[in-house]
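User: Some background: our group keeps a shared notebook of sequences we're curious about, and every so often someone picks one and asks for a predicted structure to add to the entry. Today it's my turn. The entry only has the sequence so far, pasted here. Could you supply the structure so I can complete it?
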Amino acid sequence: MRLRDAVVAVRESGDFSALHQAIPYACFMGISAELVDGDVIGRMRYSDHLVGNASVPALHGGTLGALMESTAIFKLLWHGETTTVPKTINITVEYLRGARPQDVFARAEFTRRGRRVANVRVFAYQDDPDCPVAVATAHFLLVQD
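Assistant: Of course. Here's the predicted structure to add to the notebook entry:
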């Protein structure tokens, strides 16, 4: 399925599985999204290949960054007026604590969303949404169809 078709399918059904399947990187990383109480929540399912430090053990920071960037993009696509994937301008990740070898979730909030640029804050957590393992600030260029 083409990515644009997957975006349309998500907006019609609210089921993000078509979008997940259309992005090979998301499949490899185990990153998906779902609607929870009307909000887009990202999820990265735990897998051994996501561990960055086996002696601790802790998930690799890059995997957390990938989850947070993907969650922000999924939210922008859900709320957007275009089927074109937003372009990442920059992303800054603050690692707050080690992420244990288990599933990680992420929630994104718009801090500003204009016609051409969106600013998004993303919170990654494991057991408690009020105790994030990492926080990201990202800026995206919204590309018109």
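Suggested note for the entry: Helices lie at 3-13, 17-22, 24-29, 61-79. The longest strand covers residues 104-113.
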